[in-house]
């Protein structure tokens, strides 16, 4: 079964703690994701909100919680793991030493294979479909080709907003899909 990876954003989830907690909880109930990422690049109170996020995740026995880019904070908050950016390949080993699961953002086949070699648990591979400001989409055929080359678990990411797109991804044998907009 295709895994669901919910990614937050300030645009949809706000940065007001009580409202944030309520919206995250509602979306978890509505969508039943298996993985969830707290991602809010511009929040000056990121650490506090990350703590709220991990706490809400802990109320659901089947949701793995991830913190964006900061494996030390993920460890401190007892998150399941960290989601590293495509500029953080050098941090995979350190995060794994902290017994964290590691997801890393990738955009090329070479990056996916490198993440696999470095010991990451999962990658997001993007953009699969048209996404504002993210360049030319890779498409389903490219995703299928990638999956024939790697063994690492791949979350398809980018422009996923419809159930038809999810069906297309499911046909590729991807581990799952990740999205912001689909889950709101």
Features:
TIM Barrel, 8 helices, alpha/beta, 20% strand
Order of helices and strands: EHHEHEHEHEHEHEHE
Total count of helical runs of at least 4 residues: 8
CATH class: Alpha Beta
Helix percentage:
25-40%
Can you tell me the residue ranges where pLDDT is under 50 for at least 5 consecutive residues?
A: none
What is the name of the CATH topology? Answer: TIM Barrel
Q: How many domains is the backbone divided into?
A: 1
- Sequence of strands across the biggest β-sheet: 1-2-3-4-5-6-7-8
| Main sheet attributes: strand count, strand direction, barrel closure | 8 strands, parallel, barrel
- Name the shape in a single word: globular
Structure classification? alpha/beta
Distance between the termini: 21 Å
What's the number of extended β-strand segments? 8
Mean pLDDT: 95
Give the amount of beta strand, in percent.
15-25%
- Rg calc: 15 Å
Give me the CATH superfamily: Aldolase class I
CATH architecture descriptor text: Alpha-Beta Barrel
């Amino acid at each position: 079964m295709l895994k669901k990876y919910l990614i937050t954003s300030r645009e949809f989830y706000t940065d007001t703690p009580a409202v944030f907690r309520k919206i995250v909880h509602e979306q978890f109930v509505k969508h039943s994701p298996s993985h969830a990422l707290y991602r809010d690049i511009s929040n000056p109170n990121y650490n506090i909100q990350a703590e709220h996020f991990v706490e809400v995740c802990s109320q659901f026995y089947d949701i793995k919680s991830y913190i964006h880019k900061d494996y030390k904070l993920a460890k401190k908050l007892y998150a399941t793991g960290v989601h590293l950016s495509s500029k953080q390949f050098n941090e995979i080993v350190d995060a794994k030493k902290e017994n964290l699961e590691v997801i890393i953002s990738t955009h090329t086949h070479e990056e996916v294979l490198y993440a696999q070699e470095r010991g990451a648990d999962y990658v997001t591979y993007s953009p699969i479909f048209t996404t504002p400001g993210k360049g030319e989409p890779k498409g389903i055929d490219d995703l299928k080709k990638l999956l024939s080359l790697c063994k690492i678990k791949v979350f398809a990411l980018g422009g996923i907003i419809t159930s038809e797109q999810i069906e297309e991804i499911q046909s590729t044998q991807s581990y799952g899909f990740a999205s912001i907009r689909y889950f709101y």
